[in-house]
Amino acid sequence: MIDEKLMTPRQIVAELDKYIIGQKDAKKNVAIALRNRWRRMHVKTDMQKEIVPNNILMIGATGVGKTEIARRLAKIADAPFTKVEASKFTEVGYVGRDVESMVRDLVGQAVNMVQKAKKEEVKEKAKQVVEDIILDALIPPVKSGKISNTSQNAVTSTDQMSDAELNERTRDRFREKIRSGEIDDRKIEISVQKSASSGMGMIGGGMDEASMINLQDMIQNMMPKKAKKRKVTIGEAKEILLDEESAKLIDMDEVKEEAIQKAENTGIVFIDEVDKIAGGSSKKGGGGPDVSREGVQRDLLPIVEGSAVNTKHGVIKTDHILFIAAGAFHVAKPSDLIPELQGRFPIRVELDNLTEADFYQILKEPKNALTKQYEALMMSEEVALEYTDESLYEIARMAFHINEEVENIGARRLHTVMSRLLNDILFDIPEEIPPNAKVLVTKEMVNEKLDGLVQSKDLSEFIL
């Protein structure tokens, strides 16, 4: 039976099409890889353990959509996802982040996802507890004191009963007001758990990142948690206390166990800028940072191939984690990566450079198109912004031409072109251009603002 929560490959591509223009091959391979995670989990034989993901290497110039595909994929996939930059890693023994940290980040992401889902399950129960805490702060319940004299007890029992009833009725009325949000602005004093800070820095040398995190956690768990009084509005108290009470109702050991399984079977790691660790010059006798770059590649091998990584939440095996690497490869080539690492990324996808027609589609079709973003910005001051079709074609032509003349930075070029085009209008709002005005961008306006710069090749502003 098909899981309704997970999209089919065609549906994944259709969702990516809403935000990314072109790059059909990359979208198709990413969609298949994502769906294959679900397929492997539904294989009923021992073959399930043998099926390993086909890792993907995306090759393409900057600004063609590599990172955007990863960002959108993270939102589509109900799975732990982390994006890292290969250039930030250093070889073991050098100062900096080691490659295992990306797996620790993935597990941390999985724990947050599972914890959020578990908190949602106990939300209603936690709400009841939060209501009682807020009610006790507003109207403390009547405490029935012990009265030794039986005759006094008989006389005052009716008064005590009426006080208790009155208190309960008042609490019920205020409970309704708390639920409706009627008194959310009223301030109350609440007690919040505050974990004691260890205040610990680096202790000596030779400790790796994982050991340091584990040591800090151990010291923090040993130190008692202190209660701190805070004066907040009832609206703020609801959020603070709901998070605290929900955490008390869930079993963190169960959360960690489920999170590690989720990360192992459905986790996705996106490694960007992988071309920056290719280090082609090292073959020609170059030294310096290339030594560390090749070391990073060697450190990546066991992680991508499959190994056990120790995290503060437990040990995770990386055998079935999907790795997607991406790089522009302007200077280095994929063949400059060490052969073993090339073999770990069997599927290679080359992304196309953007054409003039692609630029036009980028301006018009995506849900988050730059033109629509500027429309929303101006509408916040009640100024309507519209574009003629000819103006969009002209903006696309200009951006494409500047990329050819100066440096090809892909769709990012549109940011500087659009900024140059609309800066004067944004500056004039709201003094010169009042609310309820309408601004129409025409082909003539585009030529007036940008054509002179293109002809004179005074393009310093467009170089990012």
Model description:
52% of the residues lie in helices and 12% in strands. The chain starts with 8 loop residues before the first helix and ends in an 8-residue tail after the last helix. The strands form 4 sheets. The protein has a 5-stranded parallel sheet with strand order 2-5-8-1-9, sandwiched between helices. Strands 3-4 form a two-stranded antiparallel sheet. It has a two-stranded antiparallel sheet with strand order 6-7. It is globular and about 90 Å long. By secondary structure, it is of the alpha/beta class. The longest helix is centred in the middle third of the chain and has 31 residues. α6 crosses α9, α15 crosses α16 and α15 runs parallel beside α17. The protein has 3 domains: 199 residues, Rossmann fold, CATH 3.40.50; 111 residues, no CATH class; 96 residues, Helicase, Ruva Protein, domain 3, CATH 1.10.8.60.
Q: In terms of topology, how is this protein built?
A:
Elements: H1 9-17, H2 24-41, H3 47-50, E1 56-59, H4 66-76, E2 81-85, H5 101-121, H6 123-138, H7 150-180, E3 187-194, H8 209-222, E4 226-233, H9 234-249, H10 252-266, E5 268-272, H11 289-305, E6 308-311, E7 314-317, E8 322-327, H12 339-343, E9 347-350, H13 356-364, H14 370-379, E10 384-387, H15 389-405, H16 413-428, E11 438-441, H17 443-456
Parallel strand pairs: 1-8, 1-9, 2-5, 5-8, 10-11
Antiparallel strand pairs: 3-4, 6-7
Helix pairs in contact: 1-2, 5-10, 6-7, 6-9, 13-15, 15-16, 15-17
